[in-house]
Amino acid sequence: MNESSWYECLEFNSAMKITPDKARANSLIETAKERLDFLKMPVNETNVNFIFEGLYTSVLEMLQALVLSKGFKVTNHVCLGYYLKDILKEDKLYRIFDDCRYKRNSLVYYGKKLNLHIAQDSIEKCKTLINELDSLYGAKKPKMKLGFIGLGRMGKALVLQATEKGHTIVAHNRSPEPIHEVKEAGAIPAYTLEELFHNLKDQEQKIVWLMLTSSVVDEKIQEILPYMSKGDLIIDGGNSWFEDSQRRSKELEHKGIHFIDCGTSGGVEGARHGACMMLGTSNKEMFKLIEPLIRDVCVKDGYAHVGSSGAGHFVKMVHNGIEYGEMAALGEGFQALEKHSHSLSLNLQDISKVYAHGSIVEGKLSTLLQRGLKREDFKDIQGLVPKGETEEEMLKLAKLADMPILEESIAQRVKSRTHPSFSAKIMATLRNEFGGHKVEKK
Q1: How far apart are the C-alpha atoms of 138 and 313, rounded to whole Å?
Q2: Which end of the chain is more exposed for a tag (fewer CB within 10 A), N or C?
Q3: How far, in Å, CA of 210 to CA of 224, rounded?
């Protein structure tokens, strides 16, 4: 290829003038977006090159859709880049695309796999290209503007993902450091509640997402109510007790404020790259209002309006109970393996890999355990499970139904604080892997 500009692409027939083909362009956009939904997964050393190549393919499809809609057919990647540079005058996007193209060619044609850091950087560049090309094509889904309070591990990750997907997030936190971080990613910083609502004054209907520990939700709602008007919406995305959510919904309804309780799962990686959300509200119109945001930050088929007010947090609470039991079962099983590892020459890392690929117990927790057992600091993690925010909630849940497995898994956690065990070490490692929860080390 000797082309050095879009005009040479036309001269050498690498780009040809055709009748604009909007139908074919729309089909390419749809295919590209279906692939994006499929690739919503946590990035690790095993899949990082696969995800990069897939995202690059979606970039190509969106570029092809763009030129087709304008009446051109392009036969090589280089000329697609020149269209960005010479016709659209998008020099920055051209440089990003050219860098991704070079790395993709190294991967595909020369078999040079990218290391984790470089591939992750290339993935982020592809995502930037996809968002910008979506905008240029004019096929962007409706994007939202909302306030977001609470930039802990989960909250910060959600804001970063929502901003990346083109939503406008006005971000507030008690301490300023996380605000600085999300500001760098494109969020609007709000160091006070006054700043937050000042930045929402252009919204007819203000939406505020709370991502806070359950014990402070009532207090925060009282703090923000003076800034809110009838018809506005509050979303609680934390781990509140479902009856508290029902109460808050009724109290706010009397003031003309809408309320949605949203159970959020998937851990920090999920919040950053594709979460799972269970939403409760008695007002289906409110669910439809925020669905464009929820769709963007969740994995494909990973969200639903599960019922009336309180249902989102109730369904998430039951999910947490199942999670407790599954982690306890994994801990118990690997404790048995560890006990007999010497006599049978067992390799726990190899066993965890097998369990995580194709077995009946395959799943996210098995995958996280495989990763956890490879950690350099695994040997230093103590065999006890620190008390977390959801433990009291689980004790209350166990009284609402016949849940002996949940009761036993809670008892195992409590016992580990005075009688450490390898089983508890597995549970503590898993909690740290998916949620960044504290572990005690030797």
Answers
A1: 36
A2: C
A3: 11
Residue 43 Cα distances to 50, 231, 356, angstroms: 10, 39, 16
| The predicted structure's pLDDT at residue 139 | 47
Q: Which residues are catalytic?
A: 316, 323
Q: Which two tokens stand for residue 392?
A: 């009291």
Q: Quick check: helix, strand or coil at residue 15?
A: strand
| List of long-range contacts for 74-78, beta carbons under 8 Å, 24+ apart | 74/9, 74/14, 74/15, 75/13, 75/14, 75/15, 76/1, 76/3, 76/9, 76/14, 77/101, 78/1, 78/3, 78/9, 78/14
**Residue with structure tokens 């279906």?**
34
Q: pLDDT tens across 249-289, in order?
A: 999 999 999 999 999 999 998 898 889 999 999 999 999 99
Q: Name the CA dihedral angle for 375, 379, 382, 387, rounded to a multiple of 10 degrees.
A: 10
CA distance 235 to 179: 20
What's the CA gap between 271 and 353, in Å, rounded? 24
Cα 77 from chain centroid? 30
Angstrom distance (rounded) from CA 312 to CA 242: 8
Phi-psi region of 345 (alpha: psi -120 to 50; beta: other; left: phi over 0): left
CA dihedral defined by 338, 341, 342, 346, rounded to 10 degrees? -150
Reading the block at residue 247, the tokens are: 């109460």
Q: Pull the structure tokens for residue 317.
A: 């609470």
Cα dihedral 292/293/298/304 (nearest 10): -60
Residue 300 φ then ψ, to 5° = -60, 135
Of 183, 153, 154, whose CA–CA distance to 171 is shortest?
Answer: 183
How far CA 422 is from CA of 326, 344, 414, 432, 441, in Å, comes to 16, 18, 14, 15, 13
Amino acid at 135: S
Output the CA–CA distances (angstroms, integers) from residue 368 to 31, 269, 394, 429, in the order listed: 30, 11, 22, 9
The span from the CA of 274 to the CA of 123, in Å, is 14
C-alpha 321/C-alpha 409 separation (Å) is 9
| pLDDT confidence of residue 243 | 97
pLDDT of residue 142: 57
- Cα-Cα-Cα-Cα dihedral sign, residues 151, 154, 155, 159: positive
Average pLDDT, the chain: 93
CA atoms of 322 and 319, how far apart (whole Å): 5
Instruction: Write phi, then psi, for 305 (nearest 5 degrees).
Output: -85, 105
